[in-house]
Amino acid sequence: MAPNPAIVLSGLAKSYGAVEAVRGVDLTIAHGETVAILGPNGAGKTTTIDMMLGLARPDSGTVSVFGRTPAQAVASGAIGGMLQTGTLLRDLSVRELVTMVASLYPNPLGVDEVLGVTATAEIADRRTHKLSGGQTQRVRFAMALVSNPDLLVLDEPTAALDVSSRRDFWAIMRRSAAGGKTVVFATHYLEEADAYADRIVFMTRGKIVADGPATEIKARVGHRSIRATLVDADPEELRALRGVLSVDRRGESIVLRCQESDQALRDLLLRYPAVRDIEVTGAGLEDAFIELTGDPAEEDDQRSEGAA
């Protein structure tokens, strides 16, 4: 028989005053899945994660983590959380901090093992208030991992990291997830979700509006893009080609967003024989995000900062 799901959210709802942060969320996540929760600011991502971790109590609905309440799962060490807020305790070394966290759980991993996995062994004797941003994030990940959790919950884990540090973090994360851990993360970096998640959940206005593999979600957006080198073409004439929705000029290159890319490509080649370096691509995750979740600026106007 298949094991019970790792996470089951049923009819989950949470309000802050007049703001409905989460409205009737139903979500089931299987053991070993890596799931990205995406949405504009105010979509309900962080509130959902807080309820998953037992940091917020739902107004209605239920949360089950490995068949237990969030509080029970956290106490047993089954959940490791890495939140986007909070600071490390000052005046402790990295080793002392990770050792202290390990002491809180019944079956922790070895401290040296965790320091090695998270690439923090070389800074183990450094005081926490003397760490860089990237080092601090790695230490926070070590704190989440040392309890030997079956579930890792990461809220904006690479926020404020540079490109190199983000790449290093996900390399470490992949090694940890390869052992069969369930991973749930929220991020504003869509390319991270596309690259590392088995499954993507889009939220907006407190509800789930899409749920599935990245390829499936991108396929819901019907348009394609044509990119080519074409000098001195009139954007208005390009926009008049059949099947073209919009035109973007980038130096000597053009990008045509198309509803019917085959027809647009035929017309482009017929009208502009000098066109070259042609590429046709399907919709990206950013296109799907914009179409399925709406305008992020509009979301910010509608929702307060209390419901993240």
How are the SSEs placed, and which strands pair?
Blueprint (H helix, E strand, L loop, with lengths): L6 E10 L2 E11 L4 E5 L6 H8 L7 E6 L4 H6 L3 E4 L11 H9 L8 H7 L15 H13 L5 E5 L7 H15 L4 E5 L3 H7 L2 E6 L2 E6 L1 H6 L4 E6 L5 H5 L4 E7 L2 E6 L2 H11 L4 E7 L2 H9 L2 H7 L6
Parallel strand pairs: 3-7, 3-8, 5-6, 6-7
Antiparallel strand pairs: 1-2, 1-4, 8-9, 10-12, 10-13, 11-12
Molecular structure report:
It is globular and about 70 Å long. The protein has helices at 45-52, 70-75, 94-102, 111-117, 133-145, 163-177, 190-196, 214-219, 235-239, 261-271, 285-293, 296-302, and strands spanning 7-16, 19-29, 34-38, 60-65, 79-82, 151-155, 182-186, 199-204, 207-212, 224-229, 244-250, 253-258, 276-282. A six-stranded mixed beta sheet has the order 5-6-7-3-8-9, with helices on both faces. 33% of the residues lie in helices and 27% in strands. Among the domains are: 7-78 and 149-218, Rossmann fold, CATH 3.40.50; 223-282, 2-Layer Sandwich (Alpha-Beta Plaits), CATH 3.30.70.980. The protein is built from twelve helices and 13 strands. It is an alpha/beta fold and 308 residues long. The longest helix has 15 residues, at 163-177. Strand 8 (199-204) and strand 9 (207-212) form a beta hairpin.
